[in-house]
């Protein structure tokens, strides 16, 4: 007679479904720490790459690979890797490519945390960093030394939406690999690999996922570089997890549709804002008045993105009133690329740690408001934004 299964054993081995003939219509989530291996022969075959397989999720998981290979394909890159956040991807990249004594050249206007990370590596690990004017494409090449191992630039900078002339920047760099943070542009608008980049970085927390509900980072690029970065990411444990990667893949399916929509709405709202008396200046690369417009026409033929900024008459007090007036319709939220339109205040969030003088040099005034355009219909957004701006009136 068979020994009845004990409750401990039944419970400990529970959760398994019966085998079935049909297939799920969407990808499964491999929410598992490890993968059971047939034996030592298979272990050897997998670790040496003779057989496809996974062993431990920190080192690799089908959900990671699905997202990484889709982003790589969209960017026209050979390989990709996913990480716990954009900053996780940046950690892995910088630790993989740099050692003490090496030199990095970076655009002066960078995502705040990226600059902070570079400054930390400079202070704690003896890595040299030179910041240059991102609008002067020859400036990068001019400061390259034999120790320069990496150049970093953003396709569209925050918050003034300056567009980098990637072919001109990469032409001046020679053998130095160019890393492009293309979070704002997405592969729908710019493919940096076609313009000389060796690596493309994305905060997957933004447009790639696009629903404001995950933290993810993605690096795609040349095989050798990405392998090295993936290995260091696994070593330092900044990998993503299966569920967030799966959510990222779900979001990615609608990326082209979302980008088409936000480009159209942002362009219309930018033009509306230029005509409003409370607005001093609008920063959108699609506007003929934007300093990067010529570069934007060359780099982004399909559209100019969903991010814009404007300088409000009346400075910080006017911004405070505008945010109150917007209330719950267009929330103040220090992120971007959600399905909802959001406003942010660069002088108080992303660029808070700069001195007032440094902010002024970057053109970040006390009246600067950043808009991340969402998927709502444009007339509604225009009405809500217009009503809030009108309510500021003339009593300043
Ligand atoms: C958000 C962002 C990052 C950092 O990504 P996280 O996912 O928030 O860690 C880097 N670069 C740009 C341009 C970003 O907008």
The percent range for helix content is 25-40%
Q: What is the CATH architecture term of the largest domain?
A: 3-Layer(aba) Sandwich
Number of domains: 2
**H/I helix tally:** 15
Radius of gyration: 23 Å
What's the rounded overall pLDDT mean?
95
Strand order of the largest sheet: 1-7-6-5-4-2-3
Specify the biggest β-sheet: 7 strands, mixed
SSE map:
Elements: H1 7-12, H2 40-47, H3 62-75, E1 79-83, H4 86-97, E2 103-107, H5 112-125, E3 128-132, H6 138-142, E4 148-154, H7 166-173, E5 178-181, H8 186-189, E6 199-203, E7 217-221, H9 223-236, H10 242-252, H11 255-274, E8 279-283, H12 293-299, E9 307-312, H13 315-326, E10 342-344, H14 356-361, E11 368-372, H15 378-392
Parallel strand pairs: 2-3, 2-4, 4-5, 5-6
Antiparallel strand pairs: 1-7, 6-7, 8-9, 9-11, 10-11
Helix pairs in contact: 3-10, 4-5, 4-9, 11-15, 13-15
């Amino acid at each position: 007679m068979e020994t009845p299964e004990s409750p401990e054993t039944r419970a400990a081995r529970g959760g398994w479904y019966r085998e079935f003939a049909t297939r799920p219509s969407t990808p499964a989530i491999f929410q598992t720490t490890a993968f059971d291996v047939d034996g030592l022969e298979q272990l050897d075959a997998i670790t040496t790459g003779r057989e496809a397989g996974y062993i431990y999720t920190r080192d690799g998981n089908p959900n990671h690979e699905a997202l990484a290979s889709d982003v790589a394909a969209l960017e026209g890159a050979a390989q990709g890797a996913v990480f716990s956040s954009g900053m996780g991807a940046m950690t892995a990249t910088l630790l993989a490519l740099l050692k003490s004594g090496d030199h990095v050249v970076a655009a002066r206007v960078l995502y705040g945390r990226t600059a902070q990370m570079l400054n930390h590596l400079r202070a704690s690990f003896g890595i040299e960093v030179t910041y240059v004017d991102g609008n002067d494409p020859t400036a990068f090449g001019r400061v390259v030394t034999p120790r320069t191992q990496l150049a970093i630039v953003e396709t569209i900078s925050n918050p003034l939406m300056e567009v980098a002339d990637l072919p001109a920047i990469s032409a001046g760099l020679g053998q130095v690999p160019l890393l492009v943070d293309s979070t704002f542009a997405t592969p729908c608008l710019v493919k940096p690999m076609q313009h000389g980049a060796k690596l493309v970085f994305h905060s997957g927390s933004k447009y790639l996922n696009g629903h404001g509900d995950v933290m993810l980072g993605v690096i795609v690029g040349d095989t050798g570089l990405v392998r090295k970065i993936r290995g260091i990411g696994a070593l330092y444990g900044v990998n993503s997890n299966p569920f967030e990667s799966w959510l990222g893949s779900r979001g990615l399916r609608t990326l082209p549709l979302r980008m088409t929509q936000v480009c159209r709405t942002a362009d219309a709202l930018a033009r509306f804002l230029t005509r409003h008396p409370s607005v001093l200046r609008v920063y959108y690369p699609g506007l003929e008045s934007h300093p990067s417009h010529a570069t934007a026409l060359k780099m982004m033929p399909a559209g100019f993105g969903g991010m814009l900024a404007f300088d409000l008459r009346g400075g910080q007090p006017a911004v405070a009133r505008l945010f109150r007036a917007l209330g719950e319709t267009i929330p103040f939220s220090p992120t971007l690329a959600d399905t909802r339109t959001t406003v942010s205040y660069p002088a108080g969030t992303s660029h808070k740690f700069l001195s007032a003088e440094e902010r002024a040099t970057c053109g970040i005034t006390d009246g600067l408001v950043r808009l991340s355009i969402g998927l709502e219909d444009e007339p509604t957004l225009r009405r809500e934004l217009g009503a809030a701006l009108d309510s500021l009136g003339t009593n300043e």
